[in-house]
Design brief:
This protein has 244 residues and is mainly alpha-helical. Helix content is 76%, strand content 0%. It has 9 helices and no strands.
């Protein structure tokens, strides 16, 4: 059963972490002057990496101190038909997405639609090679740490009072709330992604497939967004008149 430290840690994930991201993290980026955005964006990436690894290490230390089994946290690999099915499905989806991506980045209208869907978090998305390098590190960090915290730990914690399926739903809602800085639509989408990851976790019996898929999804989003915004017409270019 969870103890007092577990409750404090769970509240940190459910309340403190999202509020900190919204009030002290992303707000610095939205309030930054245009010329200062690249510096603040990199700071936000690095801060996110540091905080998530700190929480993940704290989770592992708390778990070890209580002498709980690592299988209960989802950190024991399990070879199963479920894992094989997920791996096959993931490979098919990746091949399909890569094929469609070639079409999308050649379609200016598709890129314009993508830019509009990401406009609310535009300042957070990578623009330069350095941005993309740090965004890749953040994506890998999120894949490992967020799955450990929000799937492995929180589902276990809530499952002490509810069944496993309600626990997965509650953990997914908390995961969505953790992205409140993205607005209501971002919270909803992230919660749905959380449900998807929870299903993979329950199907495979471990977090490793979730970690790989989560990191790949984040990295793909960042790479595609970088291309989309790099191809955005400049305001001065849109207003140019060709003289004859």
């Amino acid at each position: 059963m969870p103890g007092a430290l577990d409750t404090i840690f769970a509240l940190t994930l459910a309340v403190f972490f999202p509020l900190r991201a919204m009030v002290f993290g992303y707000r610095r980026l939205t309030d930054a002057a245009d010329e200062d955005v690249p510096r603040v964006r990199l700071w936000l990436y690095r801060q996110g990496i540091a905080i998530q690894w700190t929480l993940a290490i704290a989770c592992v230390l708390l778990w070890a101190a209580q002498r709980r089994t690592w299988a209960m946290l989802g950190l024991v690999p399990r070879l199963s038909w479920g894992l094989g099915g997920v791996a096959l499905g993931f490979a098919i989806v990746v091949l399909y997405i890569l094929r469609e991506r070639k079409k999308a980045i050649a379609d200016d209208e598709a890129l314009a639609r993508l830019r509009e869907r990401m406009r609310h978090i535009e300042r957070m998305l990578p623009r330069s090679n350095e941005d993309l390098m740090w965004f890749a590190r953040l994506s890998i960090t999120a894949g490992i740490c967020e799955e450990l915290l929000y799937r492995g730990y929180l589902i276990w914690y809530v499952n002490s009072w509810l069944g496993v399926l309600p626990s997965a739903a509650v953990a997914s809602v908390i995961f969505g709330f953790g992205h409140i800085y993205q607005g209501p639509r971002g919270v909803l989408i992230t919660a749905v992604v959380g449900l998807f990851m929870s299903a993979i976790y329950l199907l495979t019996g471990s977090l490793f497939a979730c970690m790989v898929i989560h990191a790949a999804m984040d990295l793909y989003s960042g790479m595609t967004a970088r291309i989309a915004f790099a191809r955005e017409p400049r305001p001065e270019a849109a207003g140019e008149v060709v003289s004859s």
